[in-house]
Amino acid sequence: xxxxxxxxxxxxxxxxxxxxxxxxxxxxxxxxxxxxxxxxxxxxxxxxxxxxxxxxxxxxxxxxxxxxxxxxxxxxxxxxxxxxxxxxxxxxxxxxxxxxxxxxxxxxxxxxxxxxxxxxxxxxxxxxxxxxxxxxxxxxxxxxxxxxxxxx
Amino acid sequence: xxxxxxxxxxxxxxxxxxxxxxxxxxxxxxxxxxxxxxxxxxxxxxxxxxxxxxxxxxxxxxxxxxxxxxxxxxxxxxxxxxxxxxxxxxxxxxxxxxxxxxxxxxxxxxxxxxxxxxxxxxxxxxxxxxxxxxxxxxxxxxxxxxxxxxxxxxxxxxxxxxxxxxxxxxxxxxxxxxxxxxxxxxxx
Lengths: 152, 188
Hints:
The structure holds two protein chains of two kinds. Chain A is mainly beta.
């Protein structure tokens, strides 16, 4: 009985250590999920979407993004007002408060991915490096998946 | 029978979008299509048209709206879908040449045609429907944003305006309004 509980305790500790080392703990201070690039043909800019989760107890700010697959990446927000559509550059970055999830999604926040450097196809992985303020390491390479332009 | 099916999804007779029938003049334009040929509104004669004004260097809103429009059109019964013409009018002719437009519209639907024109031609069409568009200042790399209308304009087969569809409608509601316009005339 004692042995069983000791083994269980060790197993739980080992699993905890593994989580911590591998960074897949559900309590990772910063998680980026559902990262995708919507494929637009013709060489024009595409949009990158994702959910950014801040599990830390401090404010985090996404300040910049860059990628070898695109000549330039900007953080934008689409604004739909009174039947008109326009884009706003988020010069100050995007704040993610402690415990908050900020979603980059169609019709709102998006990474504007300009000057594609290669021909992409659906299913391709694209690495985009996100730079944050308020958390270490500041640079987070994230693998985005190319999805069809008709995907949500 | 088909008409009954089309109207079956909705109890009342009004559109989900903004009803603009009798409020605006029929379609009338001179533009250039995605093959580079000069066309007028007669290219659509006899077919209902769903028209959107945007630009291809619009990574977020335009693809979202066009993909929703194409998805709604695919919900129509086959015969109705075959009659409906989807049109994308670029208000950014400096960047949107015929090849660019053709590649862009093909990504959404084989029933979508790309159109653009000179500033004079585009202004003649957009003023007709009280639509405005404008260009932001260029950044260091020469890129610029274009503000544009977010609505889809739907014309019947006589090219008379019927309804404006905004982003707040569901795909089902858009399909319902499209079906109402497409099914409103004679079904061949």
